[in-house]
Every structure is written in structure tokens, then in C-alpha cells.
Amino acid sequence: MASGEERYQEFAPPPALRPFVRVLWTYAAPGPTPTIQRIAPDGCPELVFDIGAPYAEQGEDGAFHLQPSALFAGQMTRPLAMKPTGPTELVSVRFEPDGARDFLGRPLNEATDRRLNMVERLAGFDPPKGDPAGQAAAFVAWLTHQKQHENWTIDPMVRAEIDEAAAEQPAPPRSPGEQRALQRRFADRVGVSPRLLRSIFRFRRVFDHAAQPDGETEGWLAAGLEAGYFDQPQMARDFRRFLGCTATDWAREQQALARAIASQTYKPAGPHAA
Q1: Does the domain formed by 7-153 have CATH 2.60.300.12?
Q2: Measured by CB atoms within 10 angstroms of the end CB, which terminus of the chain is less buried, N or C?
Q3: Every domain of the chain and the residues it spans
Q4: In 3D, which of 48, 102, 100 has the Cα closest to residue 75?
Q5: Strand 7-12 to strand 272-273: parallel, antiparallel, or no bridges (unpaired)?
């Protein structure tokens, strides 16, 4: 990475971690603009390790507070507003929607819309600075060690519902009792309801279809229709719900990490191999 150059890179997990981990990603910005970044829900919990200056997150009181250098970000149902405080360098593990339950060791609904401090758990973790591939490999080695000492499992019923939602397939008919049982399993293994996860997936598909999120209303509307929205007002409600602004406002204002995640992570193309 050249001096002052922003970079974002993704790495696929090895087969042993693939049922639980969707992707590993790294990001660095030696001179980030100190503006607020709006991060939308994506249906996946994350484990984030901050090598550079910490981000500041906006709390419910409206004030910005420094995040810990290592954190677990549970499922999000509302936008996350944060801003850099200095040179940024991150390495992160994006779990599958239901892939972090046994890593976390507690129901995922206890982490929904929360960032849990993981500094103690990652004590001694020291990924190499300025080396994206080395950072991803370090996290793979650390996670593999964790998995070997814990019993990580996948609930087949929950995973089947997630796969159907991701493939835009309708949910199969269920009795009220079966639906309540699935709701309980989702609260434990995912952290949000099946219905809300489907809404989040649909919202993220807007960015898949928006090849160049440049703020043009017509482009966003076409992307929303491709993603499964009925009309522009329906999509606009979800932009307010999940990003706290309009599509054109987001495209005009967002840069750095928020734009990198939206424009690269959710595209159909696969990640680089680790």
C-alpha cells in the first residue's frame, strides 16, 4: 500500500471455518477524513480487531465514545454511526448470520445492536501491520485454535431458513408452534427474527444492484426494484430504518470504510483467497 493510499481487501476462510465464517476483511486509511460514517445492518455479526487508532461510535446520548481495540459486533437492526480518530487499520471476521453462537458462548440476541469488548479474549493477538494477507492468516490461525477447543455447531433448521432467505425463496408453510420454535432458535443462534433478517438481506441487495452508488435517484430506484422492493417509498423507508438517511444523501456523504463495505463486500464477485 502506497503512503496515504486507502485499501480494502477480502479473504475467503479455509474449509474448516467456512460453515461459520463468511469472509475475513482488512481495511486501512492512513489519512482518513474525520467525517461520520453510516454502517448499515448486513445480517452478519463481526469480530473486529483495531490495529490503528480506534473509531469513535455515536451513542444513544448523541456523543461519540471510543470503541475498544477488539470488539464483537452483534446483529444490527439500526444504523451504526462512527468516525475515525486517526490513521485506521482494521482486520475483521464476518461470521455467517448463525455462525458466531458457539464462538460467543451466549445467545446472539444478547449482542444485538451492541459492541461487546473482546480485548481480554484477544489478548496477545498481534497481526502484522501493513500486511493484509498476514493479518487475515493470523485471524484464521487464532479462530482455528478457538474452534479446536470449543464445540462449534450449526443448527440445520436455522441454516436452511437463512439459505432460503439469501436465495430469495419464500419461507415454507409452518404451524404456529413451528414458527414460535424457529423464532426461539433464531433469537439464540442469529440474534434477529427470520422476518427481520429477510428485510436486511433485501436491503443489502440494493447495493448489489447499484453498480455505482452515485446519488442518482433513478439508479437507486432501479436497484431497489431489482432487489425486490415494490416501489421507491418502500425502499426509502428501509433507508431511513437501516441507514438513517435517504439513498441520495448516503451516496453523496459517505466515503472511506462505509463506501468500501457497501460497494465491494456485497457484490456478487467472490473474495480473494487467503
Answers
A1: no
A2: N
A3: 7-153
A4: 100
A5: parallel
The SS3 assignment for 83 reads strand
Cell 483467497 belongs to residue = 273
| Per-residue pLDDT tens over the stretch 161-183 | 999 999 989 888 899 999 999 99
Place of cell 482494521: 90
- Which tens digit of pLDDT belongs to each residue from 26-39? 999 998 888 888 88
Q: How far is CA 202 from CA 107, 117, 170, 179, 227, in A?
A: 25, 30, 13, 21, 6
Which regions in the chain score pLDDT beneath 50? Answer: 1-3, 213, 215, 263-274
DSSP characters over 152-170: ----HHHHHHHHHHHTTPP
Q: What is the C-alpha end-to-end distance of the chain, expressed in Å?
A: 18
Q: Which residues pair with 11 in a beta bridge?
A: 24, 272
**What b/e sequence results for 66-97 when a residue is b if at least 16 CB atoms lie within 10 Å of its CB, and e otherwise?**
ebbbbbbbbbbbebbbbbbbeebbbbbbbbbb
Instruction: Report the alpha-carbon distance of residue 79 to residue 75 in Å, rounded.
Output: 11
The answer to whether 109 and 193 have CB atoms below 8 angstroms apart is no
